[in-house]
């Protein structure tokens, strides 16, 4: 019996891809206007810097830190690194302002909470930024616990993150259902740790997919009521 629902945030409770496009465009404009960096050059440097930082820092929450990313990018260019702070704030403030909840996300979480289910979050990223996102989505009051990759000191699909989710949930792993958009990180990661998992795939799944999935989050309460986790 499912007693706890644990949600991923990015590209699950809202579309990170859509909000990121708006935020990144704002940073591109800033870089061109204030630093004279052409958009194509900035994209290339951003990609190269990101890969360099991943190689240096490994799989940890700090790889999502835009301040560190922009700082290193500006250092490579010999530009004043003081701009990194404004660029980081611009990115995150724009992203949060552009966020829209996934269809049915808010209603679904509130409905599950009202049924007496415990609601958790298991997410890559630094904790503060994920709190800000949940607050923006209006979901923070519904959340009973949160595990970030910053707290777990590892990114999904590392078992330690899912183990910590189960510990905070206070139930057996098989009584937890993890819902997320990434087949590798969310679904397979959760299953490897003994949790049940549901793939959120609004665009539909490839032919022959055997993993349990939903194409809309508002399908979740009905599946739970039927005792199922598959479409």
Amount of helix: 40-55%
Main β-sheet description: 6 strands, parallel
Question: Which of globular, elongated, flat, extended, rod-shaped describes the shape?
Answer: elongated
Strand order of the largest sheet: 3-2-1-4-5-6
Residue fraction in strands:
5-15%
Number of strands: 6
Count of helical stretches: 10
| Helix/strand structural class | alpha/beta
List the uncertain runs: none
Mean pLDDT: 95
First and last CA, distance: 18 Å
What is the gyration radius calculated from CA atoms? 19 Å
Could you spell the SSE succession in H and E letters?
EHHHHHEHEHHEHEEH
Structure explained in plain terms:
With 231 residues, the protein is of the alpha/beta class. The protein contains 10 helices and 6 strands. A 6-stranded parallel beta sheet has the order 3-2-1-4-5-6. α6 (127-137) links the parallel β2 and β3. α1 packs antiparallel against α4 (83-98). The model has no long low-confidence stretch (mean pLDDT 95).
How would you concisely characterize the structure shown here?
The chain has 231 residues and is α/β, with parallel strands linked by helices.
